[in-house]
């Protein structure tokens, strides 16, 4: 059977990219699963004893892991939901022409240009009890709240930071999707006397569903991996109030429990996969219904 020369040429072009993908994505993932089935430490790195599912049994029966999973799910759901809402609002706002739109768009997009560690140090200075601007403003209005020391407030503060940093990402994707909607549809709807809400609900939102799906799935996956800003600001504290699975992965790794760390990493993947699949099915069913 003669192979199509064009197919062979295309295959040759993608082989380097495929090799890099397998080398830096699939191989580490398989290796991580292998490590999670062994009692890997710094002392037996080259010959770790096989323990089967013991590492998984330890993490699934650990109270610390339960708290970390709960914090992670609250963090991801709250942050991504608000980022989606604000991204939609900003996209709708910037689709209109108004004075200063260019300068304002630069200000809105600026947080995404900062590294997460930089964002962490910046908000650490803002939230610090002794000389932070935000606690000082709260004291002016009679509120004496230790933002970083209060277990009931600190996770909400971390969620706020994530919303501030990553709403621009949602805005970029949703705004691009909104710009791709033909103006003729809006003109026809306005001619028929449709209100702004009806135009948004029956034209903008259904046609924007693919962009919403892509942006939401990307943010869910990325939010599960959030580490730098939380570690810089609270280190997972006070107590375990802001301890996420990523924080536990780091703690297990730095304490030499690499097998446990690998098992926790697999847990992060499983949770992210399940949440993204449920989100994708929900958004897809909504788009079909509309």
Fold blueprint:
Layout: H1 5-36, H2 54-60, H3 63-94, H4 101-109, H5 116-127, H6 133-140, H7 154-179, H8 183-191, H9 196-224, H10 228-233, H11 245-254, H12 258-289
Helix pairs in contact: 1-12, 2-12, 3-7, 3-9, 7-9, 9-12, 11-12
Question: Level of helix content?
Answer: over 70%
- State the order of secondary-structure elements, H for helix, E for strand: HHHHHHHHHHHH
CATH homologous superfamily designation: MetI-like
**Helix/strand/pairing class, anyone?**
mainly alpha
Based on CA atoms alone, the radius of gyration comes out at: 23 Å
CATH topology: MetI-like fold
Largest sheet composition: none
Tally of structural domains = 1
Poorly predicted runs:
none
Name the average pLDDT: 88
**What is the second-level CATH architecture?**
Orthogonal Bundle
- The percentage of residues in β strands lies in under 5%
Distance between the termini: 47 Å
Total DSSP helices: 12
Q: How many β-strand stretches?
A: 0
* Shape call: globular
Assigned CATH class: Mainly Alpha
Structural account:
By secondary structure, the chain is mainly α. It has helices at residues 5-36, 54-60, 63-94, 101-109, 116-127, 133-140, 154-179, 183-191, 196-224, 228-233, 245-254, 258-289. The chain is globular and about 75 Å long. It starts with a helix and ends with a helix.
List keywords for this structure.
290 residues, mainly alpha, 12 helices
């Amino acid at each position: 059977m003669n192979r199509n020369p064009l197919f062979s040429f295309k295959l040759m072009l993608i082989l380097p990219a495929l090799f890099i993908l397998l080398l830096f994505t699939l191989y580490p993932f398989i290796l991580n699963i292998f490590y999670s089935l062994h009692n890997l430490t710094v002392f037996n790195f080259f010959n770790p004893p096989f323990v089967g599912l013991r590492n998984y049994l330890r993490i699934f029966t650990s109270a610390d892991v339960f708290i970390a999973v709960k914090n992670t799910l609250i963090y991801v759901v709250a942050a991504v939901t608000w980022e989606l809402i604000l991204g939609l609002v900003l996209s709708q706002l910037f689709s209109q022409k108004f004075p200063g739109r260019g300068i304002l768009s630069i200000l809105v997009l600026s947080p995404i240009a900062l590294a997460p560690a930089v964002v962490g140090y910046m908000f650490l200075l803002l939230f610090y009890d002794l000389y932070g601007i935000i606690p000082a403003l709260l004291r002016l209005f009679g509120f004496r709240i230790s933002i970083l020391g209060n277990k009931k407030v600190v996770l909400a503060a971390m969620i706020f930071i994530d919303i501030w940093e990553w709403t621009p990402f949602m805005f970029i994707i949703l705004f691009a999707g909104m710009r791709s909607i033909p103006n003729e549809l809006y003109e026809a709807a306005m001619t028929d006397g449709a209100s702004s809400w009806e135009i948004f609900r029956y034209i903008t939102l259904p046609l924007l569903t693919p962009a919403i799906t892509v942006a939401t799935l990307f943010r869910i996956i990325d939010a599960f991996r959030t580490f730098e800003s939380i570690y810089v600001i609270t280190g997972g504290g006070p107590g375990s109030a802001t301890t996420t699975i990523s924080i536990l992965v780091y703690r297990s790794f730095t304490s030499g429990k690499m097998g446990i760390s690998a098992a926790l990493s697999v847990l992060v993947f499983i949770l992210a996969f399940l949440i993204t699949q449920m989100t994708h099915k929900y958004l897809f069913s909504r788009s079909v219904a509309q």
